[in-house]
From TrEMBL:
GO biological process, one term: peptide catabolic process
Cofactor(s) this protein cannot do without: Zn(2+)
UniProt protein name: Zinc-metallopeptidase
Gene Ontology molecular function terms on file: metal ion binding; metalloendopeptidase activity
Occurrences of domain Coenzyme PQQ synthesis protein F-like C-terminal lobe (ranges): 150-249
SUPFAM superfamilies: LuxS/MPP-like metallohydrolase
InterPro entries per UniProt: Metalloenz_LuxS/M16 (IPR011249), Peptidase_M16 (IPR050626), PqqF-like_C_4 (IPR054734)
PANTHER family linked: INSULIN-DEGRADING ENZYME-RELATED, NARDILYSIN
One GO CC term, this protein: cytosol
Keyword annotations: Metal-binding
Taxonomy, superkingdom: Eukaryota
Length: 348
């Protein structure tokens, strides 16, 4: 059953494959599913039996309790779990050594460089090609967060209109934010039979050039309306306990622990000016911006297989670097610091 699930990954849609490759390039200490599939036939029941005590020999707990429960009850419950695991006469676990705490580290792309990674689609019968055009911007910061969020809100509909409705590149056309363990950016995700990924990449840059003038020409009233719309979205009440818990658990699991994030970002938005947003765009997102860090993941369907060969072999353009081997690339790049890896008790 597990083997079948891995084998089915080759039938993912091309845009899903592009998103997977993007994560594989950016996230340190991740392993490709092809390698895991190769190992599966060699895993025996006895291997799992031996793994369980090894897995539990040293452990670290992160807990979050929500719902109809008193503070003292939650603490008592966690203490009981800790006592069973760590304090028994024959404890199941020992605490992790400080050096063993896991970290989540993301590759830091170089300023002024557009990296691109071409790949053939796994399913040879799929005609669709796909592009993920990712722009890496900053490490979690309240002021930069709201600038990025406001840009994404303002640009989302024009991007869909131009790239999907006008140019008809493909039914799957998104502009959305990306957050890799606290490293933030935006990404265009487009799947198409009309054009190959390299051509779609050019259309994304053409859109950004066109949007630049719209951003400059935006009236003060339109700017304020967009700011207020984003504030209203942030102040919406959680729809249910699951949604609220998801917010707190993300802060814990990523390691940022900014539990007042919504209120702090609303305060930052109220202070934001239109010129600050324009400056942010010019520094980080505008085509040719000296600080811009971008990565294009291009997955080629069978309609564009000849273009894959060209993309793979032609010399890269100035200020562009082709990634030929993901793991060599990851080893060659510096990493952002991890929010994860601290230890100790933190109470809300």
């Amino acid at each position: 059953m597990v083997t079948k699930e891995y084998q089915n990954l080759k039938f993912q849609q091309p845009y899903q494959q592009a998103m997977y490759y993007c994560s594989l390039i950016l996230q340190d200490r991740t392993w490709p599913w092809m390698e895991e599939l190769e190992i599966l036939p060699h895993v025996e029941a006895d291997d799992l039996a031996k793994f369980v005590p090894l897995m539990l020999s040293r452990a670290f707990l992160e807990c979050y309790v929500a719902g109809n429960i008193e503070h003292s009850e939650a603490e008592s419950m966690i203490l009981h779990i800790e006592n069973v695991l760590f304090e028994d006469s024959k404890p199941i676990c020992q605490p992790l050594f400080p050096s063993q705490h896991l970290t989540n580290r993301i590759v830091k792309l170089e300023k002024g460089i557009n990296y691109f990674y071409p790949a053939e689609g796994h399913n040879p019968s799929d005609e669709n090609s796909a592009l993920v055009h990712y722009i890496q911007v900053h490490r979690d910061d309240l002021v930069l967060n709201v600038k990025l969020q406001l840009f994404a809100l303002i640009a989302k509909q024009p991007a869909f209109h131009q790239l999907r409705s006008v140019e008809q590149l493909g039914y799957i056309t998104f502009l959305m934010q990306r957050n890799d363990f606290g490293i933030r950016g935006i990404q265009f995700i487009i799947q198409s039979t009309a054009k190959g990924p390299a051509q779609i990449d050019l259309r994304v840059e053409a859109f950004l050039k066109m949007f630049e003038s719209k951003l400059y020409e935006m009236t003060n009233d339109d700017f304020k309306n967009n700011v207020n719309a984003l504030i209203d979205m942030k102040l919406e009440k959680y729809k249910n306990l699951r949604e609220e818990s998801g917010f707190y658990w993300r802060e814990i699991s990523v390691g940022t622990r900014k539990f007042d994030r919504r209120e702090s970002e609303v305060a930052a938005l109220k202070q934001l000016t239109q010129q600050e947003l324009i400056d942010f765009f010019n520094e980080n997102i505008r085509v040719g911006a000296p600080q811009k860090k971008s990565l294009s993941v291009r997955v080629f369907g069978n309609l564009h297989s000849s273009k894959y060969t060209a993309d793979k072999n032609e010399p890269a353009q100035p200020c562009s670097i082709r990634i030929d081997d993901i793991y060599s690339f990851r080893r060659s790049r510096p990493l952002y610091g991890s929010f994860k890896g601290t230890f100790g008790h933190v109470k809300l």
